[in-house]
User: Fold this.
Amino acid sequence: MSFIRPEARAQLWRWREVIAAVLMFLLGVKLAFAFFGFTAITGWALVATGLVTAIIGAQRMRFRSGTGGPGVVQVDEGQIAYFGPLTGGAVAASELERLALDPSSKPPHWLLEQPGQAPLAIPVNAEGNEALFDVFAALPGLKTEKMLSVLRNAGPHQVVIWERSASRPDHQRLH
Assistant:
């Protein structure tokens, strides 16, 4: 028996990291100003941790594109696997050469390219898609804010978000 409507519960779950960060921040402020010594230092540490957690939580929240899409994503020890109703496959995060977003697909798809394999297309709303945020954020040189901007404001064409080694001249930009 639940006292919270399913829609409200889904929204609270979507905002969970930001809510936890705000609570951490508020507890830190209380400790920092109400006490002295070690407790105040702990309070300031909680304030700083709360701020960082809020920023990361807000990025994660913007990355979530919902669930209920086709297929399931699993990330296990650097291996990204997608099990879809019609397609599927796996790529090693350490072997990724290119990450792109194809907004022309319905729903939009992440395209993960690894040498010697066909690109792995993963719907942005596949079950378990949240695990991709950490993998993508760990790619060397990837700008998380740009990735989130492309995800929210995708145009009609495929957009390369990250490449390990540029396949175009240095004077041409990715986006």
User: Anything to note?
Assistant: Residues 6-63 form one domain. The mean pLDDT is 87.
